[in-house]
Amino acid sequence: MNYYSTNHKAPTATLEKAVIKGLAEDKGLYMPERIKPLPQEFFDNIENLSFQEIAYAVADCFFGEDVDADSLKHIVYDTLQFDCPVVKVTDNIYTLELFHGPTLAFKDVGARFMARLLQYFLRKEKEAGCCCADDNSEVNVLVATSGDTGSAVANGFLGVDGIHVYVLYPKGKVSPIQECQFTTLGQNITAIEIDGVFDDCQALVKSAFMDSELNAAMKLTSANSINVARFLPQAFYYFNAYARMKRLGLADNLVMCVPSGNFGNICSALFGKRMGLPVKRFVAANNANDIFYNYLQTGEYHPKASVQTIANAMDVGDPSNFARIYELYKADHAAVCADISGATYKDAEIAETMKACYNTTGYVLDPHGACGYQALSDLLQPGEIGVFCETAHPAKFKETVDNILSTDIEIPARLLAFMEGKKCSVPLPKDYETFRTFLLKEKA
Ligand SMILES: *Cc1c(COP(=O)(O)O)cnc(C)c1O
Question: Which of 47, 253, 264, 339 has the most CB within a 10 Å radius?
């Protein structure tokens, strides 16, 4: 299957190229030329299938033409070695816990899947004795992070041969729990502590991608949700959630709510709907960064500088995947509004929600999931059942959660294990020349 650019000015690409390059030449995002629906029998029987079986059927629609069946199955099964349960919170609101992976956030699935698919294509190139001048050199993944992305990508790519990951993070701006998840790994993961803020890290990564001399000297790619191999596999979650709700006899009037930042996660769910997933409608829950919410209200998209919130993984002022949603709905605002409604919450409201939910149900929300829970509480119609994504384990935001709820929540053993490792990172200033020299020296 070929992939075209949302800017429509670049040639179409194979899956292999789309995964290795990440972004199209015209800076657009890659979209599959077709979205294959799953047959009705699949949905009739879905409640009897395991998470891995469901995910493989979905992956086969996306990637089956381009990856042989055994390899694809292996990649899916390797990625999904944990559970993804739905948990009842109130009579009509359930949560889909997406935080049972290695770094306790939903990005684990996309990161691991992308690492394995990239490895698959690199091996194939090597076997074919490929053309590229420098074909034994590693692929270098550059990723800027304010916390969650870096940990998921570093752990997803850990130990994958032929790929080296550089995680750039702002000094003193990442919580200690998050920092230890990408600074203690070693092997093919290098953490770089930039003396600056997140935007400086992102600017360095962008400059590196635009530096043609550097790109000639080393293979560079990105691992954020612009990459099709990272965002599409997130659709597995929604098919699995539907299966779980169907098992409970609650799948007829489903509303799914996704706390959103860059809109990669919800975009994968919308692809799921195109493939026939019987979800009635979706809700995009935002923090104070209300760009998408405003688009739904007005039909106009105006990116803004992001504002800092306690749900910081959603602090995005110009969500990349808006371009994909726009393309999916052929720019038809009414069609977007028919499938998706929006909600936006300020920090004080998020904190109130966390307290109210904890006091009435005992469920501990993290600040991101809290936006989802509140959006369903505000927007569910009579007869509808809502499922919101809990996108991270509350312990990842322990300080914030404990402050708001006056709790001392337990840190899962998996997180504690990271905290016992030895922190190792390379301190660098925020200027591009120093970063570039560092990368070239690493390569030499
Ligand atoms: C990344 C992230 C989000 C936002 O997901 P998008 O795909 O960028 O919309 C929400 N919550 C948490 C905890 C995250 O890490």
Answer: 264
Which of 17, 73, 107, 443 is catalytic? The answer is 107
Rounded Cα distance, 276 and 44, in Å: 12
314 CA to middle of ligand 1, Å? 6
Ligand 1 atom closest to the Cα of residue 260 is 9
| 105 touches ligand 1 (CB under 6 Å) | yes
Tell me, using a 6 A CB cutoff, whether residue 260 lines ligand 1.
yes
Rounded CA separation 363/393 (Å): 12
Give yes or no for residue 235 CB within 6 A of ligand 1: no
pTM over 0.90? The answer is yes
Do residues 187 and 160 make contact, with C-beta atoms less than 8 angstroms apart? no
Q: Is 27 a catalytic residue?
A: no
- For residue 267, the ligand 1 atom closest to its alpha carbon is 7
Least confident of 303-307, 352-356, 358-362, 385-389: 303-307
368 Cβ inside 6 Å of ligand 1 = yes
Half-sphere exposure of 224 (CA within 13 A, CB side): 25
Return the biggest CA–CA distance within the chain: 64
Instruction: For residue range 76-100, list pLDDT tens digits in order.
Output: 999 999 989 999 999 999 999 999 9
Round to whole Å and give the CA distance between 103 and 296: 33
Q: What is the pLDDT of residues 212-222, one digit of tens each?
A: 999 999 999 98
**Atom number, ligand 1, closest to the C-alpha of residue 234:** 7
Residue 221: strand, helix, or coil: strand
34-63 exposure pattern, b = at least 16 Cβ within 10 A, e = fewer? ebbebeeebbeebbebebbebbbbbbbbbb
Tell whether ligand 1 has an atom less than 6 A from the beta carbon of residue 310.
no
